[in-house]
Amino acid sequence: MAKSGISNYRAFHDLTKILLTIGGLWPYSNSNILYRLLSYVQGFLSLGMTLVVFGFILENFSNVALVTRGLNVMTSFTSAVLKVVCLILKHREMEELHKNLDPYFEKLLENEKMLEHILKKVNIFRLLSGVLTLTVFAVIAFQIIAPLIFIINCKVHHVEIKKYPLIYPGNYPWNISASGSLYLAHFTLETFGTFALFFVTTSVDSLFTLYNFQIIGQLREMSYYITHIDSDDDSGKYIFHRCIIQHQKLIKCVKLMKAIYGPVVLWMMSTNAIVLCALLFQISKVKTITIIQSVMFTPYVILQLLQTFIYAWCGSCLTEESENYKYAVYSANWYGNRILMSSVVIIITQKPLAITIFNSSTLSSKENFQDYFSFFETTLTKFYYTDF
Length: 388
What we know:
mainly alpha, 78% helix, elongated, 11 helices, disordered C terminus, two-stranded antiparallel sheet
């Protein structure tokens, strides 16, 4: 059980680290300038694609079908730009958060008696990260393959192509030839932009789940030690004092998480429902849906729901584990010990750890999904009852 839990955590941790390292976003303490430039490259690629697609939307503003098609793509690239900007601007906060969580959790893994407690649900966290990575890969793979299939199909049936399709609907400030080196250069550029979108989306979202799991692991460790206090006053006082200090560090870690991911979560919760409505509206206007279209639409819909679920579920798990820690403190063997009573009061009067979005909304699977689907229903109704 412990070995499988460690292997699941290692796979989860290593996948997140590899994805972030490729994009230049993993918080290494002594990273060089060339490594940091990778994050800027990904940001500029995503920003360039955002502007190109935005130009397409402005050019076809009177055509709702084309606007909704471009809106889906532009929102995805804008999200990637926002994630890169947040991690670059909050680089010091990222390093501090990483130093407080990752090395400590590695030490916890060396304690065999703690493995069963701190690695609970690690397979679910790993599964969510893996499914997210595969879903994003499927979405971008279909984006790249779709124009290639169209070109090959036209060649096989000897159909003359006046203008070769690119990966995304875009409007460049210069004319692109039907084929040739200029077309190939633009196709390559959009391919790099697609890979940048893949690495940013998967890595930043997976890092959020990883840090949440590491905070939850420390809360479980604290609960374990407090519930195993013996009658020795000195050892109990030491354990409570240590847990108070550790809990203060976790409060600071949660604040750092809010500072780094606050804008990302707010943007994602606001746009995912709109994009999903626009996508379903686009599907409803198609008379016949081909197999290729259904294969392309399905992973994209799953991705929008999965991203929302991951953030909301992780926030809910963090708050739940914080409540369990307070209950463990209250249930500990401190009755009649005046030395420990002050420590208990300090701990149980603390608010449970929770990730809030700009101090207005708390990340919770129940509350966020109710708000999400309520907004989704309202927006979708407006789409269908508006005369375009």
